[in-house]
Amino acid sequence: MRINALDTEHALPDLAAIVGGRPGGVMLPKVRSRGDIERLDNYLTALEAASDIPLGSVRVIIVSTETPEGLFAIGTYRDAPRLDAMTWGAEDIATAVGALDNRDDAGEYEHFYQMARSLCLAGAAAAQVVPIETIHGNFRDPEGLKRTATLARRAGFRGMLSIHPDQVDVINAAFTPTAEEVARARRIVDLFAANPGVGALGLDGEMLDVPHLRRAQDTVALADRLAAK
What residues pair up with 203 in beta bridges, in sequence order? Predict the structure, then answer.
C-alpha cells in the first residue's frame, strides 16, 4: 500500500490507519535519503508494538527517483531497515526539475529519465533488494505493456508495478521464464556441474563463463520457486 510522502502531514495518519490491518508492506514515495527509510522504520516499529504485531513484519518498497536528493542517495541503501525492493518513477522528478514533459517526440523517456531508471536498477543491486519496473500508464495497451515488461525483465528488473487489474496477467507472463529458457538454463547449470573448476565452457557454439552460470542459476531457482507454489 502506497502512503503519502514523509514530508507531508498525511504520512503518519496513513500508517496509523493501515498497520493494524497487518499489511505485508508499504510503498514509500518521494524518498530523499536513507534517513527517510530509518524514520519510516521508527514509525512502523511503534505502530507494530501498539498493534501487537511482530516487529519488522511490515516490509518496505521505496520509489527511489522522485526527488533530486533521492537520485544522489540511491546507492546508499544497503542494509536499510525493512527494505525489500526499489522502484522508480518519472513524473514527480520531472516536476521537481521543471521539465515540461519527460518523453521525447517518439514517446520514449528522455535520457534523464532513462538515467533515473538505470540508477534504480543499480541501486537495488547495490542494496541487494528487488528492482521493480515503474508503471505502464496506458492500461488499455496490452501490447505496449508486454513490450515494456519484457524489456524490463531483460534489463534486470524482477517485477513491475500495475495500475489496473487487467495488467497483472500480462506482467506475470512477461516475468515468468519460458520453458525454453528454463531448459537452457538447466543445461548450463548441469554443464558447469559436470566440469567443476572450469571457468569457461562452450555450449551450442557460444562461450559461457561464470556470469552466464549465475544468470542460469537465477533462472532455475525462479522456475523452481514458481513450480512449488
Answer: 206
